[in-house]
Amino acid sequence: MPGFESNKIESFIDKLQKGKKCYTYEFSAPASFCLEKLFCGLKNQSFLQELDAFICTDSPLGKLKHSPILASLKLQNTFKIPSIATISMRDKNTLALQSELIGMNSLDLRLVLALTGDPLRLGNQPQAKGVFEGNSALLLKIIDALNLNKDINGENLQGIPKRIYPFCVLNSYAKNKESLYKKMREKIRNGALAIFTQPIYDESIAKELLKWCDAINLEFRTNCALVFGFFPIASYKTALFLHYKLPGVFVSQEWLKALEIAKKNGKEAEVGLQKSKELFKALSALQQKFHFMSANKPEIIAQILKT
């Protein structure tokens, strides 16, 4: 079986930073020794042909999961599609982070989604202690140093590294817009090549985020891409969770009311899918860079992409 082609990573970056369609898909690794069952579900999906990269999560909400680095490596080698490994500052200090990034580089795992990380109090490992030596900005600085063949202290490293490409995440909604703008600005200033948003359910929010990104890119003479987070809502329960429990996500009252009524009529899946398709069509008119999330239910994304 042929191995993963390294040049696919650079091809993905080229699509991401130019005005081209670009799709990524979130793989949420469970707390399991075996990922093959989920892999089998993915292999049957036609949208893999349109997929440019995977993003593998890093124990979201502080819950124990499969290693995002090893899951990313498995995804990349199995599907021959670039995989973005999510790495948070929550669980490792700068020594461990640098060591892992050097090792990842040697295995051609060179796409990194930098996070500060959710607090452990939200999770299921009460004995665990958070590290938080810094936030995602520090991880971006580590990556910048490694790309110059140096460690975080400026010491030279052996060998010649392949380029590591860093990305960040951003809430799609905040009551304090100025604060959200400043966070986007800081991430772009610190070298993020793309910003992946939390799920967006309002076209006006998407337009505003694009406007901000364009202005900041102009200010710093950068070319950071903004990628819309997209999570189809198939139930009223999911809509309530996203709106009230997931920070930085806003689901309009119009959506919530429509899904509540649909649930009473036994049609929430049908109504949710239709509204999600309409939203996808509207957002696609603004740009065609999307990060799809589905809680490991790829068949829902397949239905959206038939739009």
TrEMBL record:
Q: Which GO terms describe its biological process?
A: methionine biosynthetic process; tetrahydrofolate interconversion
Q: Name one Pfam family in it.
A: MTHFR
Q: Which domain of life is it from?
A: Bacteria
Q: Which UniProt keywords apply?
A: FAD, Flavoprotein, Oxidoreductase
One MF term in the entry's GO annotations = methylenetetrahydrofolate reductase (NADH) activity
- Look up the record and name the pathway of this protein: One-carbon metabolism; tetrahydrofolate interconversion; Amino-acid biosynthesis; L-methionine biosynthesis via de novo pathway
Report the SUPFAM superfamilies cross-referenced here: FAD-linked oxidoreductase (SSF51730)
**PANTHER family referenced in this protein's UniProt entry, alphabetically:** METHYLENETETRAHYDROFOLATE REDUCTASE, METHYLENETETRAHYDROFOLATE REDUCTASE (NADPH)
Q: What is this protein called?
A: Methylenetetrahydrofolate reductase
Q: Which organism is it from?
A: Helicobacter winghamensis
Organism classification: Bacteria, Pseudomonadati, Campylobacterota, Epsilonproteobacteria, Campylobacterales
